[in-house]
Specification:
272 residues; alpha+beta; Aminopeptidase; globular
């Protein structure tokens, strides 16, 4: 019996802000039921619902990732549907997102009005320190964001500030732990990877992961897995659990005060 062919997905680097709405919409839809987002935003409206403030926050967040790291996207949903019409199930849980640690602001244009225009798949990568060079466009974006943060700060009003702070503090601690184990100059962070919900169960999650591992070459790569059932998926690509993290909001009176995630590291050699 012949092996099922691997799905190939091509991503391209995003340099222009006009692509942000399509990317933000896919992130909102893919992360709407993610355990991390639900823990950060208890009793709030789902991310998938349109909200001006939430949209502004997400837009600014992606701008900041473009400044500090690398934002990648695939072709839009329509093109990806034509290129990958398959119906085999992906091993990754249908709510694909991995991590959403950067609770940063966002503002600007409205969301993509049609599903077909949304990004098929997206990835946010933060390279090792000093790896990303400064350019005129990057300096301009840094100045622009500094001004926007002062004059028009953006905030996800549905998120509990205490929980966001807990998450960021724990992320920093995990990062320092990994930096003590691996060369800091070769350690990448995969903050977000997501496939549009309408495209899931086609093996695209695996295709995106293979592309990312090829992109970072032999460097180390870490992520935060927010679903226990997805740990096996990442292990199939060579990731290993470095740390299990449990965040507890002791002030909460509900049963949703605990959130658990798995910090996973890839050693730097591509595993298909």
């Amino acid at each position: 019996m012949s092996a099922k062919p691997l799905v190939k997905v091509d991503l391209f680097r995003v340099h222009k802000e006009y692509l942000i709405p399509a990317i933000a919409q896919t992130v909102h839809l893919a992360f709407s039921s993610d355990p991390l987002i639900q823990w950060l935003r208890p009793n709030a409206a789902p991310w998938a619902e349109q909200d001006t403030g939430r949209w502004s926050w997400q837009y600014r967040r992606i701008q900041r990732i473009m400044l500090q790291g690398e934002v990648f996207t695939s072709a839009n949903v329509k093109q990806m549907t034509e290129d990958h019409p398959g119906n085999g199930r992906n091993k990754l849980s249908t709510d694909t997102p991995i991590s959403a640690v950067a609770a940063l602001p966002g503002k600007q244009p409205a969301a993509s009005s049609h599903k077909d225009d949304n990004a098929g798949a997206v990835a946010f990568l933060l390279p090792p320190p000093g790896r990303k060079p400064w350019s005129v466009s990057r300096i301009w974006l840094a100045c622009k964001l500094s001004l926007l943060d002062r004059l028009a700060p953006a905030h996800d009003s549905g998120a509990r500030d205490k929980r966001v702070e807990m998450l960021l503090d724990r992320h920093e601690a995990s990062s320092k732990l990994l930096e003590s184990r691996y060369p800091r100059q070769k350690l990448w962070y995969l903050e977000v990877v997501a496939v549009h919900p309408s495209l899931q169960s086609r093996g695209l999650g695996g295709g995106v992961m293979r592309w990312i591992l090829e992109h970072v070459h032999d460097d180390h790569l870490y992520l935060e897995c927010t679903r226990e059932e997805n740990v096996v998926f990442y292990e199939s690509f060579g990731f290993r659990v470095a740390e299990e993290v449990e965040l507890v909001d002791s002030a909460s009176q509900t049963g949703e005060h605990v959130f658990k995630h798995w910090v996973m590291v890839h050693p730097g050699k591509l595993t298909l």
